[in-house]
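Much of our argument rests on the idea that a fold can be written as discrete symbols. Part of our work consisted of pairing the sequence of a single chain with a tokenised description of its backbone. The amino acid sequence and the backbone structure tokens for this protein are reproduced below.
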Amino acid sequence: MPDIKYDIMKEIGILSENSKGWRKELNLISWNGGEPKYDLRDWAPAHEKMGKGTTMNQDEVTKLREILNTIEL
């Protein structure tokens, strides 16, 4: 499996943290030198390891925001 390179451009927010210190975070990340995307996934405390997650471009984040605004909490 090839090395995946990432650069966390902006740490936007932490949604939760588990007992082992892993945090579910929303960040703006450049993957393998590409255009930065919004990224939601679990990270080890020093960002040295990551879990599976999802990336979204600006249009997708805007649409997600619209959808979340329709949910009654």
Helices lie at 58-69.
